[in-house]
Design brief:
The complex is a heterotrimer of chains A (about 290), B (about 280) and C (about 270). By secondary structure, chain B is an all-alpha fold. Chain B has 12 helices and no strands. In chain B, helix 6 packs across helix 8. Chain C is globular, with a radius of gyration of 19 Å. Classes of the chains: A mainly alpha (about 290), B mainly alpha (about 280), C alpha/beta (about 270). Bound molecules: adenosine-5'-triphosphate and magnesium ion. Adenosine-5'-triphosphate binds next to strand 2 and helix 1 of chain C.
Chain lengths: ~290, ~280, ~270
């Protein structure tokens, strides 16, 4: 008689061997990390050396207590306001650049998906005509956002002279590229079924856009734009480094003069401003969502 | 119900927008006007005929790009440094953020389900830990990358290495905040179920939380890498390696042909990293 | 009004949703399609309202071949066909009035459409259409705050406002109670009778279809199984039509699963 309980058949654990992708990925990741380690001239001994420690100490010792003299604080009001102004107007310019380009760069509006199935399939010339503005605006957006704000700022400082205005333009162009791309992604992600229904009533593409896409996308558009405004505050502080106004210019000057007490004050001010915009934009976001 | 509709009664108009809405729009318009004046903005100077002509002239001066061998060699070195800064910087940031974030999300540090039954003293201590981790992440995040870069240059000298450190430290703050948001939004039901089986906290973490959050962590890290390649390109402005230094020089000395080459290099680098990150996102998630 | 010859739609993955359909529907006719879930009814309606391009076969609407339509002519053809969608396909965040007025978009200029978003025009018409479907008080409510059945009626009101020559109603009463369902179907047939509009519906409620429509077409696996007057439809015919379908009644098509309005947009990366 066979035993009543037989030992269980061993079921091999599936997938114990990593997939080919995983192995190739791990190998390439390791190689890239090693090559980067070498290219970036990573130097841990220096980082943990006594000298580096002493340098850090110098900064801390000089930075505290921070510069809080009334004259200095009073002097900071203008650059701080300027930073806010740059961020506000820069975001507005970015909106003006990004919104129309973002519409053009929306594939589901331009040429792809069920909205165009009957209209475009089998009509290569029509399709090409639709594709051209789409491709062009994508390329433009990608150029705008690939070049860092700081480089844009330098170029505009050359063109319009020192001061906050080149900062506005730099944020406007660079963020315009980002906003345009994200707007188009938001538009592409809306529920397509209402769009189909609108089109079936005979609505034109503009009708479909304003009645179907914008209402669905609106909260996301507002929310992302507000978020970008928060980023713009931080960015406009940086732009001062190349002479484009705001408190960044002050940070740069104080740094160059090794006046770390002032630097700490300035950074504290920046922290406060960023926290303030964070809170404000959070409240605004809650309202639209 | 019949097709002939009942007589139309007077229909009420749409509800009026609240006064606060109008005030909000007015405030926005006022703020923009204030900014326009405060920044000495002059749209005419940019979009007027003169401004446009100037821009066109500048655009023409950029061409053709400088493709001489010495510059190309320098661009190649700068580009590889920029890439290395972004890659290692992001990696460092992920390590720091991952180490801190479990203390910096309320539901894992001291509050909610996992600590329901905990003694008040222990929870108080944990709250302290939480506050410290949060504060540290906030500090890392709000100090701009370039300021960190200047500090690290001051500490360890010129070159790409301080760039890596600056990027890593600042991005750690950003990722820490994002990771913490993800952690605080995990679905609590599996956690409750696991805890009900008598699992320890680390076990709950491994079985109930990490599987939920890791894909988001990866996605955010990749996204941040895309941002960081752009930041790494300007680290050189303060002496922290990469293409930035050359760009600064090219702009300051009116070397427009070189500038175009450098901008093209950045464009290529950024586009490549964007594509790579999109590919990884598709394959890994 | 409609003529189809060998009409076929194949989706990626060799899914033959509509398979060699021959069909003729005259002007002013009232036709009900019935058939099991996944039979291809919705796909057929999307072909009939000039949204999808047939993979093979030919289709004429009002004497014009659909494949030759594009641009303005295509829009004009769509304007004359009003569709009530199974999933309502309303714009969730828009107030009801704009969803109803959207039926006019094919007639309005873009400027008028935009102005109406700021300050609605033709309010009386919208109100009357809502009155016909029994929810006039929801004129300014937000659409995603309505119940499923109320949303369905908004979708019907939109089609009423469009005032088309052909009404295509894909399961127009799936989310309302039986009494209201009968009321709405009668509303549609009354309209069709009074104005000579062609009415093509698709109903899961066989009894309602048999009681209301002079012509019943059974659709299964993308093919016409029968095309009969209601009196000629026998229990065996219906049994053959629904054979093998789950006894619990037709399930929702996989692609018709309602999108969660909260997640219909994928989350964006935020740095
Ligand atoms: N866009 C699409 N892509 C791929 N397959 C599809 C698509 N739309 C429909 N199908 C498939 O075509 C078949 C017919 O679907 P259809 O929606 O037309 O069925 P139906 O008769 O309307 O069903 P129900 O009564 O459940 O609404 C199904 O197998 C479905 O999965
Ligand atoms: Mg269907």
């Amino acid at each position: 008689m066979p035993p009543l309980t037989r030992p269980p058949v061993a079921v091999p654990f599936p997938g114990s061997r990593p997939s080919r992708f995983a192995r190739v990925f791990a190998l390439l990741f390791g190689l890239t990390a090693a090559a980067s380690w070498w290219a970036a001239r990573v130097d841990l001994p220096t980082l943990f050396s006594r000298e580096a420690f002493r340098n850090a100490l110098v900064f801390v010792a000089d930075g505290f207590p921070p510069a809080l003299s009334p004259t200095f604080l009073f002097f900071l009001i203008r650059p701080a306001l300027e930073t806010v102004q740059i961020s506000l107007l820069g975001t507005a310019v970015a909106l003006v650049i990004g919104f129309p380009l973002g519409i053009l760069a929306t594939a589901s509006l331009a040429h792809a998906g069920p909205l165009h199935e009957l209209d475009l399939s089998g009509r290569p010339v029509r399709r090409l005509l639709r594709f051209m503005p789409y491709g062009l605006s994508r390329a433009l957006l990608s150029l705008f956002r690939s070049v860092p704000e700081l480089v844009w700022a330098l170029v505009f400082v050359r063109a319009t002279g020192l001061g906050p205005f080149p900062g506005v333009l730099a944020i406007g162009v660079a963020y315009g590229g980002i906003l345009g791309k994200v707007y188009s992604e938001i538009f592409e992600a809306v529920d397509p079924r209402p769009l189909e229904a609108l089109q079936a009533t005979g609505a034109s593409r503009w009708g479909v856009f304003w009645y179907g896409m914008v209402p669905q996308a609106f909260p996301h558009l507002v929310s992302y734009t507000l978020y970008r405004w928060e980023c713009a505050i931080r960015a406009s502080a940086i732009l001062g480094f190349v002479g484009a106004g705001g408190i960044g210019q002050q940070i740069e000057i104080s740094m160059r003069m090794f006046n770390f007490g002032e630097v700490v004050t300035l950074i504290g001010l920046l922290v406060l401003m960023v926290a303030g915009t964070d809170a404000l934009s959070l409240r605004l976001r809650r309202r639209v969502l | 119900m019949a097709w002939q509709a009942p007589a139309v009664r007077a229909v009420a108009g749409p509800p009026r927008a609240a006064v606060t809405t109008w005030l909000g729009w007015a405030a926005l318009a006022g703020a923009l006007l204030w900014s326009y004046r405060g920044t000495a903005a002059d749209i005419g100077a940019v979009l007027g005929p003169e401004g446009l002509a100037q821009m066109a002239a500048y655009g023409r001066r950029l061409f053709p790009p400088d493709l001489s061998a010495p510059l190309l060699r320098e661009v190649a070195i700068g580009a590889s440094e920029t890439f290395a800064i972004s890659f290692l910087g992001t990696l460092l940031a992920v390590l720091i953020a991952f180490g801190l974030v479990f203390f910096a999300s309320a539901n894992l540090a001291f509050a909610g389900l996992l600590f329901e039954m905990e003694r008040p003293v222990v929870r108080g201590l944990r709250l302290l830990l939480y506050g410290t981790a949060r504060g540290l992440l906030n500090l890392l995040r709000t100090v701009p990358e370039l300021v960190w870069a200047i500090l690290f240059v001051f500490m360890v000298g010129l070159g790409p290495f301080p760039g890596v450190l600056a990027l890593g430290v600042h991005t750690a703050g950003v990722l820490g905040k994002l990771f913490a948001e993800v952690l605080e939004n995990v679905d609590p039901r599996p956690i409750e179920a696991l805890q009900g089986t008598g699992a320890r906290r680390l076990q709950v973490l491994a079985y109930g939380i990490l599987p939920q959050v890791l894909p988001h962590f990866v996605s955010y890290s990749l996204y941040r890498w895309e941002v960081n390649i752009r930041v790494a390109a300007i680290m050189g402005f303060v002496g922290a390696g990469g293409l930035g230094q050359r760009i600064h020089i090219a702009i300051s000395l009116f070397l427009e042909h070189q500038l175009l080459t450098l901008v093209l290099a950045i464009y290529a680098l950024v586009t490549a990293v964007d594509a790579l990150s999109a590919l990884l996102r598709r394959r890994l998630l | 009004m409609y003529q189809a010859e060998g009409l076929t739609k194949v989706f990626p993955g060799e899914i033959r949703a509509v398979d060699g359909l021959d069909l003729k529907i005259g002007a002013g006719e009232r036709v009900a399609f019935i058939g099991p879930s996944g039979a291809g009814k919705t796909t057929l309606f999307r072909l009939l309202n000039c949204t999808l391009k047939p993979t093979a076969g030919r289709l004429w609407v009002g004497g014009r071949e659909v494949a030759h339509l594009h641009g303005a002519a295509l829009r004009a053809a769509r304007r004359r066909i009003g569709t009530i969608y199974q999933q309502h396909n309303l714009v969730p965040r828009l107030p009801v009035i704009h969803n109803v007025l959207a039926g006019r978009l094919g007639t309005w200029s873009t400027t008028r459409a935009l102005l109406s978003l700021a300050r609605p025009v033709e309010v009386e018409e919208a109100h009357r259409a809502l009155q016909q479907v029994g929810i006039p008080e929801k004129l300014y409510a937000r659409t995603d705050e309505l119940s499923g059945g109320q949303q369905q009626r908004v979708a019907i009101a939109r089609a009423l406002l469009q005032d088309p020559d052909i009404i295509l109603a894909d399961e127009p009463v799936s989310s309302v109670d039986p009494t209201l369902a009968a009321g709405i179907v009668h509303l549609l047939t009354d309209i069709s009778r009074a104005t000579g509009k062609t009415l093509v519906v698709n109903l899961h409620s066989v009894d309602l279809a048999l009681a209301t429509f002079p012509r019943i077409i059974g659709l299964r696996d993308g093919r016409v199984l029968f095309d009969l007057a209601p009196a000629a439809v026998r229990d065996e015919t219906l049994a053959a039509l629904y054979r093998g379908a789950p006894a619990t009644g037709p399930a929702e098509g996989a692609l018709d699963a309602p999108l969660d309005p909260a997640t219909s947009c994928r989350p964006l990366p935020r740095v």
